[in-house]
Structures are given as structure tokens and as C-alpha cells.
Design brief:
The complex is a heterodimer of chains A (364) and B (262). By secondary structure, chain A is an alpha+beta fold. Chain A contains 8 helices and 20 strands. The longest helix of chain A is centred in the middle third of the chain and has 18 residues. Chain B is mainly α. Classes of the chains: A alpha+beta (364), B mainly alpha (262).
């Protein structure tokens, strides 16, 4: 695929200045299954907020309720201060891109994009001009007369994005639009979607179960679990300071080591004493669990070291070293691959935990 | 040529002869003249036979009316069931295939009783027959539409249409119907073919249709009856060929929808 999103012409933008979206107390139940249990969320004008969570956490249900495609049992959805709970889906002006390919098979790429404009009473020439501009915008200007089955998966999702943007939506809703694409196209398209969204300044809710997507594309990430919001913060904050045990385990890899809190609010872990990050829910002294990301630990080869290398897995620029401590605890360490060259299975090592403050949690 | 291929070809020839010989014999019979000669006079004179045109038009009108009624009834109903009430799909299927196992005489009397309160312009005319045929066509229509709706990502397309600003009627007419073109045509042609050949119920209700006329004409002139029967057979065959060709021309469809997450 060689298409790329082109620079945005001002006249294409229409009124895509972002709206303010507020979700409060959203609840939805399917039989005995609670899909959403009082979800509160806000997306400011022009902001891209990702809903991240495992399958069944309620993220798609939340998006469909915002789109009006699913009713809620309780709660409110407000756009620019107006409650749209009673507004039917076709009057909400929400542009949506779906997980599966959703283009109308009987229409060309151009007519798919013009579909929403036709419903708004635009003349044939005007809507085709605008649809053509949007096709150029998503890098598919030469594919106007092609039918969906003649387009690749990535191209179909680009057309779907253009179709959603054509109606100048108040909020753009993206329901795992990249999940059906192969890795290379997915990486390319996610950068392009983000670039386009930033240029257009359109408020966007992006549902994904892929933490890389969420962390790399979003202004803020809302982590959902079992229908509840666990944490909503900027990607760096989510990664560095997960608010709950679930967020810590779901976003990235987190090592959990046993430690002992000292009265000076420091923690002793593996013969190292470190200061403790403020906040968090943990006991004031005694046994705690110390949370450490794999990339902040260094591995020092040492013949009498207290840990053993189990295996080294190569991931391109980074290698992950799996290590076992004397008490049987497993630790994952990420190293630049050139640093991991000398390490091998069975090698004795010592862990250098650095000097930065660490997060602690209740003991496990 | 392998043994399996030979067996298949022999089987094909035998079955072909089984179906084609009676048809060929019927055509030959309709072409018989006097003194062991053959003539097309019966076929050319068919249109001048008393009742031929009237009854043929009645049957064609019945076919058209049946198709319109059943599609208007079934397309929205099935779309709704597929989208909103998927658990009722099996119930609907059971109801729709029921006419296949109900004897024609029961069906005819059942419809007469059910619609006895309707005005005379329905009860005493071929209109009541169209209502009978709608019931008879339910199995074909259900099967065709169900297969068509299962083969496209219906829910995603409908959701997309709604999000772009289309209400239910607009979605039905501009998204669902165009993408079910082949399924709708199959249902229509199968239903029309059934109506054009249906004799029992029309005869039980004492209404004149083309098949009824064919039988009546055959009592006076068997060659005419045979020619008329062959004509209906050819028309039906042409309809089925059209359906088959339309099916082959169908464009590749969008991929099946991915599993929905919640």
C-alpha cells in the first residue's frame, strides 16, 4: 500500500471543530451480564480519547450507546451540553468507523462517501466534489470508481473513515477500525488517523483492545474493566502510574517483587532500598508488592549473582530477558538487543533496580 | 476416464432421459398432424383458443401480485428478525416452511375460513388466490431471503447507514434491498414460477387460471392442452435460467462481519 493521508485543504474541513462529549452514569445490562456499570467519561473539543480494555469490558457497548445504536439502561450522553439520549442514531451526526468492513457493496468508493451527503439533500455535483476531496484526503483519489470488493482491507477502512468525515460529524467514533488489518497496514493507518484527527480537531472516541494503539494515538486513555472505568489519564501517566492493580497488569508488563516498607517510607527490595512514589493504595509498613516496569531494571552478569537467566527472547531493537530470583519469582527485563547479546540461559546475574522511586501495592 | 467418471456420466444420461423423454414426447404429441405428419398449427393457434389470453393474463397478474405482496411482507419482516429478534428466526422459519407439509385442500379451506370476513371483491375473485399463493410461496421466499441476509454483514451495514443519517425506511430501500438484489430476485422468480404452474388450489376455489384452463382445454383437445403445458414449462424454465444467470453475475461480497466485542 502506497497511499497516505494528504495535507488537509481548509475547505474540506467543514465544521469539524470539536464538540464536547460528556458521558455520565452510563449503565447497560444484557440479561445477567452487566456490560456497563456507571461509566463516567469526558472528551474535550478536539481530543482523542481511547477506550481500552479486554474483550467484554463494555467499550464497544459504550461507543454504540454514544452513537445511538444501542439503548442505555441509565445514564446520560451529552454533546456540547445537550442530552442526546432521546435522539435517534440517524439524527445524532456521529461519524462511525466499524471493526468489520462496513462499506455498502453496491456502491463505489465515491458513492459510499457521498451517501451521507445525499441524505442531507446535497446535489449530485456538490456531494461528488466533496466525496472526491475526501478520497484525495485519505490518499485514494484514483479509486473513486472502484467497488468495495476491489479495495484492500486498509483501503476499505480509509474509505469508511472518509465516509464518516463527510457528514462533518460532531464526534468521530472509531470501533476497533484497525483490528482486521495486517500489522504493517495497521501501524501506518493508525499514524495517519491520528494525524488527520489532530489536523481536523475533531473530538474522537477510539475503541481498542490494543494497548500500543491506545498509548500511541490518544490524548487520554480510559481503561475499562468489567463495565467500570479503572483509570482515565494521559498515556504516559497510565503507563508510569497505573491507578489500580488491573491497569498495572493490563497496560504493559509489570514485575511484582516482594518488598518491605520502612518507617521512612522507603522500600527494601532485593537488597536495594528505594523511595516510594506518593499516592497509591498500600499499607503504611510491613510487606508490600513493589511494581517495576521491565525497562527500568538492568541486568548485571555476576558469577555469584542471586538470579538466573531462564531465556532471552529477541524482539528486534529490544530483547526481553526472563529471569528467576532465588525465591522462584519471575522477572522480565527489557534491554536494548545489543546489551542482551552476552546473556544466555542458566547464567547467574544480579538485578540493578536503579535509584528512581517505585510504586508499591498491597502484598499478593 | 476413471470408473467414477463413467458412472457419473451414465447416471447423468439416465436422469436426463428420465426428465427429458416425457417432455419431448409431449412436445411431439402437440406437434402431431393427420396421417403421421407434424405441424405447428396447434402452437400457432394457441393464442386464438377461447380463454387462452384471459387466463394467461390472470395467471401473470396473480404471479405479479403474489410477488409484490410477499416481498413487501417478508423483506422488512426478515430484516427486522435478523437485526433485532435473531432468536425468533427459527420460529419464523418453522412458520414459513409449514405450507410445504399442509395438504392443498386444507390450505384452501383454511384460507377461505380465515378470510371469510373480507369483502366480496376479494373473496369471490382471484385476489383471494393471491393471498393463498403468498402462503404457498413463504418457504421459497424465506429460504432465499434468509440465505441472502446471512451472506452480508447486514447489521454493520444498517448501523453504518443509521450513523450516516438514514432512518429505517431509507435504510431498507437504499441499503438492504440493493444488497439483497439476488436473493429478492430468486424469491420473486421462484414464487412466480410456482403461481404460473399451480392448479390444485385454483381448481378447488373454482377460479380460472392458466393451469386450470389448460386442464379444461385438454378435455376437448389434448394437443392444445399439451402445447399450453409446454408453454408454461418453457416460461418457468426461462425464469429459472434468468435467476441462475443473475446469481452467477453477483459481485463478490464484503467479508463476513468480525465477532463483536462488548
Amino acid at each position: 500500500m502506497t497511499e497516505t493521508v494528504t495535507s488537509v485543504q481548509p475547505d474540506i474541513l467543514g465544521r469539524q471543530a470539536g464538540s464536547h462529549l460528556r458521558i455520565t452514569g452510563l449503565r447497560r445490562q444484557f440479561g445477567n451480564v452487566v456490560a456497563l456499570d456507571g461509566l463516567d467519561l469526558e472528551a474535550g473539543p478536539g481530543e482523542l480519547v481511547s477506550l481500552l480494555g479486554p474483550s467484554g469490558c463494555g467499550k464497544t457497548t459504550a461507543l454504540r450507546i454514544v452513537a445511538g445504536l444501542e439503548p442505555s439502561d441509565a445514564g446520560a450522553v451529552e454533546v456540547d451540553g445537550t442530552d442526546i439520549a432521546r435522539t435517534p442514531a440517524h439524527k445524532r451526526d456521529m461519524g462511525m468507523v466499524f471493526q468489520s468492513y462496513s462499506l455498502f457493496p453496491n456502491l463505489t468508493a465515491l458513492d459510499n462517501i457521498a451517501f451521507g451527503l445525499r441524505l442531507r439533500g446535497q446535489g449530485k455535483r456538490a456531494r461528488h466534489d466533496r466525496a472526491g476531496d475526501l478520497l484525495d484526503l485519505v490518499g485514494l483519489g484514483t479509486h473513486a470508481r472502484q467497488y468495495p470488493h476491489q479495495l484492500s482491507g486498509g483501503q476499505q477502512q480509509r474509505v469508511a473513515l472518509a465516509r464518516a468525515l463527510a457528514i462533518e460529524p460532531r464526534v468521530l467514533l472509531l470501533d476497533e477500525p484497525l483490528s482486521a488489518l495486517d500489522a504493517v497496514v495497521r501501524m501506518q493507518l493508525r499514524d495517519e488517523i491520528r494525524a488527520l484527527q489532530t489536523r481536523l480537531g475533531i473530538t474522537t472516541l477510539f475503541v481498542t483492545h490494543d494497548q500500543d494503539e491506545a498509548l500511541s494515538m490518544s490524548d487520554r486513555v480510559a481503561v475499562l474493566n468489567a463495565g467500570r472505568l479503572e483509570q482515565c489519564a494521559e498515556p504516559a501517566e497510565i503507563y508510569a502510574r497505573p491507578a489500580t492493580r488491573f491497569v498495572a497488569s493490563f497496560v504493559g508488563t509489570m514485575n511484582r517483587l516482594s518488598g518491605v516498607l520502612t518507617p521512612e517510607n522507603r522500600v527494601r527490595v532485593a537488597d536495594t532500598v528505594l523511595s516510594v512514589l506518593p499516592g497509591g493504595d498500600h499499607p503504611l509498613d510491613g510487606q508490600v508488592t513493589v511494581l517495576l516496569r521491565p525497562e527500568r531494571i538492568r541486568v548485571v552478569p555476576e558469577a555469584s549473582g542471586p538470579a538466573t537467566v531462564l531465556r532471552v527472547s529477541f524482539h528486534g531493537a529490544v530483547s526481553r530477558v526472563h529471569i528467576e530470583l532465588e525465591d522462584g519469582t519471575g522477572v522480565a527485563v527489557d534491554l536494548a538487543s545489543e546489551q542482551g547479546v552476552g546473556l544466555g540461559t542458566g547464567q547467574r546475574v544480579r538485578l540493578d533496580l536503579g535509584t528512581e522511586p517505585v510504586m508499591v501495592a498491597h502484598p499478593e | 476416464m476413471t470408473g467414477g467418471t463413467i458412472v457419473r456420466r451414465v447416471f447423468l444420461v439416465v436422469m436426463g432421459l428420465f426428465f427429458l423423454l416425457p417432455i419431448a414426447a409431449s412436445v411431439e404429441f402437440s406437434l402431431r398432424g393427420t396421417d403421421n405428419t407434424h405441424t405447428v398449427s396447434v402452437w400457432t393457434g394457441l393464442v386464438h383458443q377461447a380463454g387462452f389470453a384471459d387466463n394467461l393474463i390472470t395467471s401473470l397478474e396473480l404471479a405479479g401480485g403474489t410477488v409484490v405482496i410477499i416481498l413487501v411482507l417478508m423483506v422488512p419482516t426478515m430484516a427486522w428478525v435478523h437485526l433485532r429478534l435473531p432468536r425468533l428466526r427459527r420460529v419464523l422459519e418453522s412458520i414459513c416452511v409449514m405450507p410445504m407439509v399442509i395438504p392443498a385442500v386444507v390450505l384452501a379451506n383454511g384460507v377461505l375460513v380465515a378470510f371469510s370476513g373480507l369483502p366480496q371483491w376479494i373473496n369471490g375473485t382471484p385476489v383471494i388466490l393471491a393471498l393463498e399463493y403468498v402462503i404457498l410461496a413463504l418457504p421459497f421466499t424465506f429460504r432465499s431471503l434468509d440465505a441472502g441476509m446471512s451472506a452480508i454483514p447486514l447489521r454493520t451495514m444498517v448501523d453504518a447507514a443509521h450513523s450516516l443519517g438514514a432512518g429505517w425506511l431509507r435504510t431498507l430501500l437504499t441499503v438492504i434491498v440493493p444488497n439483497l438484489r439476488t436473493a429478492i430476485l430468486s424469491a420473486a422468480i421462484l414464487s412466480a414460477a410456482m403461481v404460473l404452474g399451480e392448479f390444485t388450489i385454483a381448481n378447488l376455489l373454482l377460479l380460472n387460471t392458466f393451469p386450470v384452463w389448460t386442464v379444461q382445454a385438454g378435455q376437448q383437445d389434448p394437443e392444445v392442452a399439451m402445447a399450453a403445458s409446454m408453454l408454461i414449462l418453457i416460461v418457468t424454465w426461462i425464469l429459472l435460467m434468468i435467476m441462475s444467470l443473475l446469481g452467477r453475475q453477483r459481485r463478490p461480497r464484503a467479508p463476513r462481519p468480525a465477532r463483536r466485542t462488548r
